[in-house]
Structure to design on (1168 residues):
């Protein structure tokens, strides 16, 4: 017998989301489909059929992300038209009649410097002076899609005309349906405990069971195959998400507590993120709807996970700019781990700074933010930090506040001083620090 | 032979008396029709009475002839011939005969000027009604004036600072508009400005019309010449309208074609069919369009269209002016029953043609018209004025300001309805207008300036092409490279226009102005901004002043920032700022009640409305989002109750719908100081902080008299943001 979970395209338990998506598409309403890695976005999109309008599809994961022209060409290919300018793409949409363009892995676009302009144009296209509801976009991606806006642009957020459709963990009924598809006799409760309502974990465990493994062996093998994704989930959860999962008791929390109970309202946003990453599940306990811990496989890993790079961001600045660096730290610390030297005096005490600083800025941080001024360029310790940071590619985020280091790598994109307004700068950093799907 | 007699003869030739009775009995309203027929009479009289009864009920339609063909398939040719005759024989509407060409409405202090204008017009051979000249002693003055105005082609309104206090003149203006609204009369109202700067409150409709000015249009003699020329154009226009609904049908054809639909002949009297374009064409059936220009469409017309619709297909109901209330109700009833009839007004279609957005407008209207949909849900800006509530006063103020040649900056919070407001305002504009959503331009590429100039000239040409058959330029052919070329091209068109009728300013509407406004330090973007907007400022303030600008922005920054990185902001202190406020309670009630009725909700509990207003503070998007959530949770089909609202709110909370909205649209654009003040106010403290930040929050409708009027937002701040905002402020 064929194992139904190998190369599976099973679609179970997401009928409600599919109906909402179909309805939006039929009405020409653009939609952001938001879910964690392997939470089932692509499979849901595959179910979208041409009932009421033509469906064109593109996957940003398959593009070369160079400039706007490449993106427009990709959109054109989806519409089966050759085009390379906005005007040509507009004509292609106009001629296509009612159409929905499905853009999978759309969150990969967001970090591109040209993406904000293109997304604003797309907002115009679906508005009353473009083509209106004749065109609907479906953008699928991770949590970073929600709340995206271009910090260099004060205009309306380009995605705020779109409805957000969040994936949720699969319910008991759907988990049962998976077991039935596999035709295996395993305990539903045990499966739910290990996989939560995460469809990918469910399928992986069942795949091993159908192949003849005992349940516990299947769980172990699943862990071996999946834990590479766990660090991505952890990043998508963010620090507040991890803290929430650690605080969530085994018996769960009533759903209304996140609106009503001061002990849980601070976790509200983190709970929602954890939910569309399928890292918690919904259940009814004593006739009360509750949010319960999600896949034990992942949660156990989370508790014993090896250390990530110590910091998401280390700030390198001259002492004259300490107020700005402090403000940035305050703005980001709830979501990210930020290294801001004055807050780590105790840690640095007694350390050889000639060794400790290069380690922080060169190894232990995912990104280094450089606030570059004339003073920064000339000072000893900042030079050490900068040299350590530039030693590894792709980590430098430079804000030009007057003068740039002479040895700045040619290909590093730096942001002009117009971003000194802290709020804007924080938005740019948030975008950068949020992990890809 | 009349079409009734022709149909009578056909019936006589097709059926025996008994067959005819049976045929009628099996048709719509069969029993009632049979009961109304004479029992003992000749067959010809019976057939004639049958035709009368059918026609009275609006049942002589495509379906009736189809049924005859099914009953007598061999006589299909005769039946089709009778059907064509029936269609050809559409009745003509008698127009009230105009006795006067011009009726002059004036304030008593302007009587000498009114007499002088009357004399000028008479010297050109026009028939002019001036009350003092035409009413004999002993006549009923009020009745005589009213009758004369009804029997005039044009009401000429002399506007001066005396108009505000002239009760009788204001009555005449109101009457003039009521005559205009009845499209069958072909009446026009033309304002004549006697003074250069004029402020008359409460005359919104008038101020938005193309007018003539004593100073700018060659004195009273020049005005008289222009009025006579306009009359000649109007007469030929009326003549064409009297040939049925041809003009409206033609407009509908152009509209649907511009929207990308293939247009075919319909089977009804004034019908068309339209087909979806592109890949869906192969799987779709033609949709039905009914053109109902004359007389004003009734509920019977709506039902007739509904009776011809195939299940699942949309029907379009093309009409002039506003729909009568009972016709609106008939549309609502059908909507609730799941039938989709989309009303398309002449104004909406002609504006869409001028703005080159027929496709977007048609899709938006179709989306709203679908039966069984939740009309509270809204993401895009409105194009249908039936959904705009509580804005008539502001429309009036902006209309007046435009009439005075002022430049307007409309400010307001995100999703408060700025674009919707501009869309509806634009539909009211008679004059040429260029509507530019600046999101379409890439601010980092300097060529947006040329694209903007190109679009302005193209919009002028589309307006001219729609209005004059011999307009000298095709839209989209001109590409002005700089401000001088733009001025030259607009000037050419303006001169051509001036030779043919009263001139009016070109209105340029710039939506999302903040999209192009440079940030400090953005030198290249500032350069482009100064070049593009400087050109518009020059056109608005130069000798001719032939451009008016209405811009929309979140904040009034464009009007208040003097210095840009490498020059002066051309829009500094240029606009009159007009904030778009939160809706008043009664407007929210009206919005919820009206939209609810469209979906079959006949009752909305008072406590529901109270709490909805409290939570939304009158923010239209928030109010509709809450109403939509409640609508989904409602326990009874036809009611919205407070419990439904609570359930809906809980669902929104669970998905953080409002939280996301507040965060993205209200919270993110604020600076740290503004956030701190809001956090303090949400916690019940007094709103201490810089006057600038407090004023900004007030203008955005986020703080009002030491409270946050949008209670749901205040609650969100308190629960999720207050701590971090206060910490950030204290460091």
């Amino acid at each position: 017998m064929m194992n139904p979970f190998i190369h599976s395209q099973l679609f179970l338990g997401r009928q409600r989301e599919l109906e909402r998506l179909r309805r939006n598409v039929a009405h020409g309403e653009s939609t952001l489909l938001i879910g964690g890695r392997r939470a089932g976005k692509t499979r849901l999109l595959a179910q979208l059929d041409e009932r009421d309008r033509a469906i064109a599809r593109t996957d940003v994961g398959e593009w070369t992300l160079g400039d706007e022209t490449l993106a427009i060409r990709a959109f054109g290919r989806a519409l089966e038209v050759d085009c390379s300018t906005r005007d040509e793409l507009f004509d292609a949409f106009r001629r296509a009649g009612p159409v929905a363009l499905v853009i999978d892995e759309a969150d990969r676009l967001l970090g591109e410097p040209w993406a904000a302009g293109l997304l604003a144009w797309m907002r115009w296209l679906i508005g009353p002076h473009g083509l209106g509801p004749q065109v609907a976009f479906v953008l699928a991606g991770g949590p970073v899609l929600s709340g995206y806006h271009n910090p260099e642009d004060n205009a309306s957020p380009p995605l705020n005309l779109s409805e957000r459709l969040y994936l949720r963990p699969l319910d008991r009924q759907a988990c049962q349906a998976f077991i039935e598809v596999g035709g295996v006799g395993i305990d539903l409760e045990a499966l739910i405990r290990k996989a939560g309502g995460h469809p990918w974990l469910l399928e992986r465990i069942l795949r091993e069971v159908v192949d003849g493994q005992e349940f516990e062996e299947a769980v172990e093998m699943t862990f071996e195959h999946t834990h590479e994704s766990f660090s991505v989930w952890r990043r998508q959860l963010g620090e507040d998400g991890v803290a929430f999962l650690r605080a969530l008791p085994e018996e769960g929390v009533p759903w209304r507590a996140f609106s009503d109970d001061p002990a849980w309202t601070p976790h509200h946003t983190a709970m929602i993120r954890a939910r569309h990453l399928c890292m918690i599940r919904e259940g009814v306990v004593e006739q009360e709807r509750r949010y319960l811990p999600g896949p034990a496989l992942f949660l156990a890993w989370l508790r014993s996970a090896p250390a990530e790079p110590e910091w998401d961001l280390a700030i390198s600045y001259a002492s004259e700019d300490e107020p700005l660096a402090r403000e940035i730290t305050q703005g980001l610390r709830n979501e990210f781990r930020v290294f801001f030297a004055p807050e780590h005096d105790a840690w640095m005490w007694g350390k050889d700074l000639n060794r400790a600083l290069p380690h922080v800025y060169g190894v232990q941080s995912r990104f280094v933010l450089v606030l570059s001024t004339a003073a920064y360029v000339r000072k000893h310790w900042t030079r050490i930090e900068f040299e350590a940071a530039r030693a590894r590619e792709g980590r430098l985020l430079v804000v030009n506040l007057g003068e740039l280091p002479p040895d700045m790598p040619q290909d590093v994109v730096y942001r002009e001083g117009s971003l000194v307004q802290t709020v804007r700068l924080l938005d740019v950093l948030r975008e950068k620090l949020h992990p890809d799907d | 032979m009349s079409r009734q007699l022709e149909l009578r003869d056909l019936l006589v030739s097709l059926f025996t008396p008994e067959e005819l009775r049976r045929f009628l009995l099996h048709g719509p309203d069969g029993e009632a029709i049979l009961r109304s027929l004479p029992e003992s009479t000749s067959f010809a009289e019976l057939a004639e009475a049958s035709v009368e009864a059918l026609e009275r009920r609006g049942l002589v339609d495509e379906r009736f002839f189809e049924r005859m063909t099914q009953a007598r398939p061999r006589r299909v040719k005769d039946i089709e011939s009778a059907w064509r005759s029936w269609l050809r024989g559409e009745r003509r509407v008698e127009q009230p005969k105009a006795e006067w060409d011009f009726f002059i409405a004036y304030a008593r202090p302007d009587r000498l000027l009114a007499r002088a204008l009357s004399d000028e017009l008479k010297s050109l051979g026009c028939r002019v009604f001036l009350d003092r000249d035409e009413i004999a002693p002993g006549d009923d003055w009020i009745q005589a004036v009213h009758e004369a105005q009804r029997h005039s082609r044009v009401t000429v309104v002399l506007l001066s600072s005396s108009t505000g206090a002239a009760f009788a003149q204001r009555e005449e203006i109101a009457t003039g508009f009521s005559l205009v609204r009845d499209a069958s009369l072909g009446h026009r109202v033309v304002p004549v400005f006697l003074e250069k700067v004029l402020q008359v409150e409460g005359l919104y409709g008038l101020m938005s019309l193309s007018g003539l000015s004593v100073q700018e249009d060659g004195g009273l003699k020049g005005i008289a010449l222009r009025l006579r020329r306009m009359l000649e154009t109007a007469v030929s226009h009326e003549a064409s309208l009297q040939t049925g609904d041809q003009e409206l049908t033609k407009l509908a054809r152009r509209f649907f074609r511009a929207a990308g639909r293939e247009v075919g002949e319909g089977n009804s009297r004034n019908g068309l069919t339209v087909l979806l374009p592109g890949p869906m064409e192969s799987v779709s059936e033609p949709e039905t369009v009914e053109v109902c220009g004359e007389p004003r469409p009734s509920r019977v017309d709506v039902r007739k269209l509904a009776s011809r619709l195939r299940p699942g297909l949309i029907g379009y109901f093309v009409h002039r002016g506003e729909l009568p209330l009972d016709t609106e109700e008939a549309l609502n009833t059908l909507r609730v029953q799941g039938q989709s009839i989309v009303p398309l007004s002449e104004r909406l279609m002609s504006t869409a043609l001028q703005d080159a957005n027929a496709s977007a407008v048609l899709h938006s209207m179709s989306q709203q018209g679908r039966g069984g949909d939740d009309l509270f849900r809204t993401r895009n800006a409105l194009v249908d004025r039936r959904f705009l509530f509580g804005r008539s006063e502001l429309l009036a103020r902006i209309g007046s300001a435009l009439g005075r040649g002022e430049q307007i900056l409309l400010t307001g919070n995100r999703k408060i309805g700025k674009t919707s407001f501009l869309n509806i305002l634009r539909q009211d504009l008679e004059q040429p207008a260029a509507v530019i959503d600046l999101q379409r331009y890439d601010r980092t590429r300097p060529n947006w300036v040329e694209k903007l100039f190109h679009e302005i000239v193209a919009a002028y040409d589309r307006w001219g092409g729609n209005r004059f058959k011999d307009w000298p330029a095709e839209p989209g052919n001109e590409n002005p490279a700089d401000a001088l070329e733009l001025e030259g091209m607009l000037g050419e068109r303006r001169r051509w226009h001036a030779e043919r009728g009263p001139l009016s300013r070109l209105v340029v509407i710039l939506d999302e102005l903040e999209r192009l406004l440079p940030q400090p330090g953005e030198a290249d973007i500032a350069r482009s901004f100064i070049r593009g907007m400087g050109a518009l400022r020059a056109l608005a303030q130069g000798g001719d002043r032939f451009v008016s600008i209405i811009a929309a922005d979140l904040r009034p920054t464009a009007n208040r920032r003097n210095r840009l990185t490498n020059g002066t902001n051309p829009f500094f202190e240029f606009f009159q700022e007009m904030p778009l406020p939160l809706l008043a309670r009664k407007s929210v009630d009206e919005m919820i009640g009206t939209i609810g009725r469209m979906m079959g909700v006949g009752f909305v509990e008072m406590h529901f409305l109270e709490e909805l207003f409290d939570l939304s503070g009158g923010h239209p998007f928030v109010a509709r989002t809450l109403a939509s959530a409640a609508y989904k949770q409602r326990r009874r089909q036809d009611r919205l109750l407070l419990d439904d609202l609570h359930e809906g709110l809980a669902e929104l909370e669970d998905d953080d719908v409002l939280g996301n909205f507040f965060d993205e649209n209200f919270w993110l654009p604020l600076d740290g100081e503004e956030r701190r003040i809001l956090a303090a106010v949400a916690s019940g403290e007094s709103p201490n902080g810089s006057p600038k930040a407090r004023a900004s929050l007030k203008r955005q409708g986020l703080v009002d008299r030491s409270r946050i009027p949008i209670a749901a937002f205040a609650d969100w701040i308190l629960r999720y943001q207050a701590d971090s905002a206060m910490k950030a402020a204290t460091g």
Chain A touches chain B through 66 residues (CB under 8 Å). The longest strand of chain A covers residues 365-372. Chain A has a mean pLDDT of 85. The CA atoms of residues 175 and 192 of chain A lie 7 Å apart.
